[in-house]
C-alpha cells in the first residue's frame, strides 16, 4: 500500500460487475430495455463492462458526456437533462453520427429546436412524477398534448415517449417507502401512456432512479429503465435500503496525517475536494463517510464500528475513531472511506484504481 500517498479512489471490479449483472438480469426478467445512466462512472473502460452483458443503449447527463461516449463507439445515447438550446450546434453534430435522444422539459425549447435542427433527433417529454425538479406533471395533459403535437409536426423531431426520474425516492428511508414511490410513479406514467398510446402506439416510457430500479420487482407498462448510481452504490443508497454495504464498490483511500487520541480523532488527507460535502445522519451523528480497513491488496470489508468522517474542509478530513481503532493507526497508514454519494466522489477524483493491482481506469476529464 506504500505506492498510495495521496487520496486515491479504489474500485472493486468484481463488485462493479456484479452490480451491473444484477441490474441487467432484472431488466431482462421484466422485459424492459436496460439503458444505464453513465453519469456515475463516466468511464470508457467501465462502459465496456456493460457491453459484456449486452448493453447497447446508454443514458448520459450532458452533451459533453454524450460526445465522450460517442467517441468511444456508443451509437445510441439519450441525454437525460433538459435540452440546453445554447448547445444546438453540438446537438446537431451528435445527431449526425449517432442515434440521439434528448429531453424536452420546457416548451420554450421547441421553437429553437424546430428552427435549428439539421439532423433527426428523438425526443422524450420529461414527466415530473413527484421530485418537483423538471418536466410536466402527469395531470397536465393539455400542455403535454400541445408539446407532443409540436414535436410530431416537425420532420427532424421524432416523438419517442415519456421519461421520468423519480428522484424523491432518495428521501425514502426504507424499502417499503421506495416501493410506494415506485408504484405511484409507475401508476402516473401508465395513466399518461394510456391517454396517448392510441394516437402514438410506438411511444415508450422510461424511468431512471437507482432506488426504485434496485428495490422494485415489477415494472408494468414501463419500457426502459436507466438507473446510474447502482454501478457503485454508496452510503446514501444503503441508508434508504437500496443496497447492502457489500454492494458499495468504491472507497477513497486516505493517508492518516495526524492522530489525537485524547479527543478520539484522527486527521486524514481527504477533504471536500475529494469526497464532496454530501452527508447523512445516522444515530444522531452527521457523517461524511464511513471508515473501512484496507488489506494489503486494498480489499475492504464491513465498516469499522464507531468510526466515521465527522467533518471536512478543503483537504482535511476529521475522523471520529473508537479507542480500539485509534490505537491501531499510525501516521502514514491508509484508511478507506465509503462515500456518501459515489457520483460526486467519482467526479471529484476523476480516475479510479482497481484493487489488487492498482490498474488505472479513466474518468471523463472535461468539465460538464
Question: What Rg do the Cα atoms give?
Answer: 22 Å
Q: How many domains would you count in the coordinates? A: 2
Oligomerization state: single chain
Number of β-strand runs: 19
CATH class of the largest domain: Alpha Beta
Could you give me the name of the CATH homologous superfamily of the largest domain? Alanine racemase
Identify the overall geometry: elongated
The CATH architecture of the largest domain comes to Alpha-Beta Barrel
Q: Estimate the strand proportion.
A: 15-25%
Helix content: 25-40%
Main beta sheet: 9 strands, mixed
Count of DSSP-assigned helices: 12
Indicate the topology.
Layout: E1 8-11, H1 13-29, E2 33-34, H2 44-51, E3 58-60, H3 63-71, E4 76-82, H4 88-95, E5 99-104, H5 110-116, E6 121-126, H6 141-152, E7 157-164, H7 175-197, E8 204-207, H8 210-215, E9 224-225, H9 235-239, E10 250-260, E11 265-269, H10 272-275, E12 280-282, E13 285-287, E14 289-292, E15 308-312, E16 316-320, H11 323-327, E17 334-339, H12 342-349, E18 351-354, E19 360-362
Parallel strand pairs: 1-18, 2-9, 3-4, 4-5, 5-6, 6-7, 7-8, 8-9
Antiparallel strand pairs: 1-10, 10-11, 10-17, 11-16, 12-13, 14-17, 15-16, 18-19
Pick out its properties:
alpha/beta; 9-stranded mixed β-sheet
Give an overview of the whole structure:
By secondary structure, the protein is α/β, with parallel strands linked by helices. It has two domains: 220 residues, TIM Barrel, CATH 3.20.20; 119 residues, Lyase, Ornithine Decarboxylase, Chain A, domain 1 (Beta Barrel). Helix content is 30%, strand content 25%. The strands form three sheets. Strands 1, 10, 11, 14, 15, 16, 17, 18 and 19 form a nine-stranded mixed β-sheet that branches. An eight-stranded parallel β-sheet has the order 2-9-8-7-6-5-4-3. A two-stranded antiparallel ribbon has the order 12-13. It is elongated, with a radius of gyration of 22 Å. 46% of the residues are buried.
